[in-house]
Known about the structure:
By secondary structure, the chain is an alpha+beta fold. The chain is built from two helices and seven strands; from the N terminus they run H-H-E-E-E-E-E-E-E.
Amino acid sequence: MGRGSDEVLRDLLGLQEKIYRLFDDQDAHAKGNRDAVSAHWAPPVDIYETREAFVLVAEIPGVDQEEIHLEVSDDLLVLSGERPLNTRDPDLSYHRIERPNGIFQRAFRLPAGVDPTKVNATCRDGVLRVNLLKKGGTEPRSIKIQLQ
């Protein structure tokens, strides 16, 4: 009797995880453990639109606000920063590191209608919220047609 699709999927995901670990272990061995865990990473983001703005929400827990950099130029928003690995405490000896750390950078093309001079951001509890306000006059308006 054949195996169910759930079992096959579980086996494939398990195999994928083993392959990732194999490459991670090889990379860590080749570079030294500290370099392997401080590779580039990308914080997950959500982007949605309201009537007044486009909003980008990024999850960046453990990143100090001073380490977050936002730059707007022409039609591009660049989010960058760093989440360092705690190496200041000589008594720490990591046994496993799964949370990504190191430098990150994401770039997003601004949609048409965004006013690059009206961008603001807040950060609370590891969640960054960037408001990209729309230019005025983007509301649809009715145009009266004159008869000739």
